[in-house]
Amino acid sequence: MATVATRPPSTGDGARPSWVRGVVVGGIVLLGVALVWEGVKFLGGVPWREPLALPGAPVLHDPPFRWQFANDLNLPHVWNIVLTFFEPWQRNADQNVAQYLIGTALYTWREAALGFLLGAALGLFLATLFVHSRLLERAVVPYVVASQTVPIVALAPMIVFAVGPSVAAVVIVATYLTFFPVTIAMIRGLRAFDPRAMELMQSYAASRSEIFWKLRLPASLPYLFTALKIAATASIVGAIIGEGPGGINDGLGRAIITFNQYYITGPEKLWAAIVVSAALGIGFFALVRGAEVLLMRDRPADAQG
Amino acid sequence: MTSAQAPAVVRLTGVDKVFHVGDQTTTALTGIDLEIRRGEFVSLIGPSGCGKSTLLRIIADLIDPSGGEVAIGGKTAGDARRARDYGMVFQAPVLFDWRTVEDNVRLPLEIMGWDAARRTSKAREMLDLVELGDFLKHYPYQLSGGMQQRVAIARALAFEPSILLMDEPFGALDEMTRERMNSEVLDIWERTGTSVVFVTHSIPEAVFLSSRVVVMSARPGRITRIIDVDLPRPRNEETRESTHYFALVTDVREALRDGQAGRDGASAGGSGTGSLDRVRAEDGVG
Questions:
Q1: C-alpha gyration radius of chain B
Q2: Gap from A3 CA to chain B (nearest CA, Å)
Q3: So what's the ipTM on this one?
Q4: pLDDT at position A6, please?
Q5: What is the dihedral of CA A166, A171, A174, A176, to 10 degrees?
Q6: Which residues in chain B have their CB less than 8 angstroms from residue A206's CB?
Q7: Angle formed by the axes of helices B116-129 and B101-111, to 10°?
Q8: Among A154, A184, A270, B179, which one is least packed by beta carbons within 10 Å?
Q9: Does residue B180 sit at the A interface (CB-CB below 8 Å)?
């Protein structure tokens, strides 16, 4: 009994510190981006005044160059983007930009999550069919691939025509973007078992469904979660894009369209909407990652994604 | 323990296996006749490429023979598999990462529709048998290689298959662990009375364990000799040091060498040790 490991089943060693480290490193990277951003403006922006200063206030810094892409319209100051979160989101509105964007983000997230679940289920269903039938795989997979070459901006209005402007249309767009990565990854994942484990199951005379539930699916989880993390962010993009033609006024898509229309008078608001969209994507991704850590906690570290 | 009068559990008659890869055909096995009686412990030994693992998989109905007949206790191999007559143990333990030790042993019982209480009591009984009763809730990666292989043996025996098929089960273990596992397997075999077909590269292992050693040679895979091992049982450390044991090891070694010589022709046949070294070299690769 030379190498008897007696430690009890536990979560992966150091899971928490690595999570904390991720957040810290992410914060440092974000700070770095802000520094580069402001550095560019320092060199080639327009003369700076105090934040929220009225026209005519004294100039604090006059950049040596004038680069068009770095002017206040194309590249607003980081602090102005931060400050805009606390302004009313439109004239005489009760909610400030932060409240408004968080509300729309949660609305969009509900659509995206529904599309994500449907897309994951559809992807899993298709992959299951394909791994059990080479014929179906050869016949249908090219069309699955082709479906993703149709630009979503062309497809979304067609879906809205078909089902009417509604949340359902938005969910379908999100589903459409999420089933693909799950299908492709799971065609591989459901075949990623140890071939001897399959021989073992055959020696037990296990049925196809037992082989699926007890071998194929558990062995595919690393592939599934890789796909779900891609699908999570894709579902957010799908929902935002679908909201425009879908006529949904409560989501991030509408907020982006609105702020886009008023970009000349308040470019910071559109940037704020982009920041919130990105945060929503990261949040959904992290949620899926959390589920992965939870479900894979008993597996050896090299099997975890 | 085994007697010539016991009925045959495995009867192979003129079994051939030809593999087709592209436009190439390889004869893996040719003209295999073999009868294994109930309660026997039979080893298949031979150089890499002699088709011993293929033969094991044909018996297990994991691959179909190209010709000949396979009868398992009067049934076809397929019917025997569907009747859950086979317990399989591979060179790697092939435990499911996501299941605890106990749940790994329960897996075949779940598939075979045992109720939960019986599954649990049987799994614990089997794990006690292989002396892993204290590791029920551990995951496979938390165990050493030898312990993992004992879990695999417990899993294979849990549903009391009439035939245990072992494909180089201890090939990945160090010599000390291997000898201990050999004794454990014999102990379990004597207690359960299962018939065992045991594929190995190791001459001492084959002699120590078996009632009969089936010596095979390669290209094409065939049986060159079957050697009766009439060492007294129970076998133990004394057995390993007896002169009769050494004599039998030498018998098997010479049978292997003859098989090699037959294949390689006169040039290799002239130097016995030379071809034996080749057997060993191939062992390492296999």
A1: 19
A2: 6
A3: 0.82
A4: 46
A5: -100
A6: 111
A7: 130
A8: A154
A9: no
